[in-house]
Amino acid sequence: MMKKYQYFILLLLICSAGHAQYGKQKRADKLFNNLAYLEATNVYKELIENNYNFQENSLKLGDAYMKLRSPENAVFYYGDVIDSSGISAEYYYKYAQALRGTKRYQESRDWLKKYLETGATSVSAEETLEKDEYEPKTTYKLKKTDFNSEVSDFGTFEKEGILYFVSARAEAVAEKDRIYSWNGEPFLDVYQTDSTNMIISPVSGEINTRLHDGPMVISPDGKSAYFNRNNYVGNKEGKRDKEATNNLKIYKATLTNSTWSNVEELPFNDNSYSVGHPALSPDGTILYFTSDMPGGNGGSDLYMVNINPDGTYESPQNLGEKINTEREESFAFVDKDSTLYFSSTGHAGLGLMDIFRIDLKDEAAEVENLGEPINSNLDDFAFFKMSTNNRGYISSNRDGKSDDIYSFNQLNPLILKGTVTDAVNEKPIAKATVRLMDSTNKQLAFMETDEDGNFMTPIDRDATFPIEAKEIEYQTFTGTVDTRNSDDKDTLVYNIQLQPVNDLEYLAEIDTIYFDFDKYNIRPDAARELDKLVDLMTNEYPEMVIAIGAHTDKRGTNAYNDILAERRARSTYEYLVNNGIDENRIESFKGYGENQPAIECERCTREQHQLNRRALFEVVRMGD
């Protein structure tokens, strides 16, 4: 009887524990479904510690951490079960995304391959596998702004020196008495700050409510503002969708006596889907926005709608498959040159969400990743650029905490240009080769100067680069190009001077001066070569000073050959002087007889004797 009683008590305990875990499971799932991800993570952890529905709850916990943009934690919990049987292929993709968020790029690519091997179709995954290098065409300098808070700040817009942005700081907003269960922060509001005094205050009027508000953009004439908000108007929350979600909508407010009022809902909003992140074309005639409305490519897509002169709106148009993917596209911004900047989790990138751009005027243009430092391994979004200069703002959670606002200075590509000239006569040198190397001596650029000695190539900023210049008639030049502290420049000039080689055969392109046997007159072929030397000394190097040395073959006595060599040196000297070379520019002319033969031989052939009967030249100096 006692054994039966003990068994009964044990059974009750097991059932009670199981019931408790079941209750926790329901609570965790309810929190998750109600978007209370931060609180849900704690309950899922308890379930996993008790080994209750381990696989399912590990995946749900990974999902919750991805919603909270914490890929490190998501990788940990996904990784516990990702190799288990029965895992949905979609989790291969999620795991790959989480890995990318932790900069484990090769592992991420491996899991994308596994995802596609299951038969899944994904343009995003295929694009990511095809491209893994993102070299930006533009250089950006990034700096975290001084007006960030400890909570989320993002979505900057500038108008007439006033910066507008979204923040969860809940300062001076009486209605913000609620906490957003998604991440445990207060609901969002729109704030403004003067870029000079940095005094921060909520936007005046009817923009901010007790729910999420912002981002906001203002029309070119300054009279209208378009902004995001949960479905809330007239101090009353609107209807939710069938999943009890209060979707985002875009509203318009009018500026009256320096206050935003007369809030009205745009006609293409709907209770059953979200419409948000408004952006205006530079002329204010087109409104761009994000929506997960039916008929899109998947996730959220970017749309545009024309604004008629009377203030009415035409039908929204999807921006198409080149821009929109099966994942999420959002936060549009259109520059004055019709370049669309936007954020995406679907295009190949460096992190969870990257910023991209595309030229809307060019039908053949492709989407381009802005690369580092604009993009990071986490979320980068809400690109905004000033209309009057190359400065602007992005938002990012790259520090691993809440979203922050970063200012940037968009720098044009830096162009290295210069001229290669002769160090003596300062004349340009055509067809000189110029090589630019990196710190490991790897060649980055190879150039050949034009007829004016010019060269040009793009070059990275904030670094030093070894440079080398060569030409056959000159000594090799080596130096260093320094592009640090070049933010105020689009062009960096680096001129190079080459020192001529001390070899007249190269400089004048002359052949050796030869003499007939037992003769010292200047032969016609020798005269042609000497004329080249005259031209060089007259037109190229008018300050050049040379020395002449003449030689004989080994036939005849030493004494006779010494005299013959002297005569050959003199006849060469006289030819140059008679043809216009100042005698002071010939430092000496000497005969060396047979003592310095070009060819050493005991029984020399006729050809060898000829090679020894010659006159040679030496450069004493190139100029004063």
TrEMBL record:
InterPro entries: 6-blade_b-propeller_TolB-like (IPR011042), Bact_OuterMem_StrucFunc (IPR050330), CarboxyPept-like_regulatory (IPR008969), OMP_bac (IPR006664), OmpA-like (IPR006665), OmpA-like_sf (IPR036737), TPR-like_helical_dom_sf (IPR011990), WD40 (IPR011659). It is found in: Cell outer membrane. Residues 502-623 form the OmpA-like domain. Keywords: Cell outer membrane, Membrane, Signal. It holds the Pfam family OmpA. Transmembrane segments: none annotated. Residues 1-20 form the signal peptide. PROSITE patterns: OMPA_2. SUPFAM superfamilies: Carboxypeptidase regulatory domain-like, DPP6 N-terminal domain-like, OmpA-like, TPR-like. Coiled coil: none annotated. This is OmpA family protein.
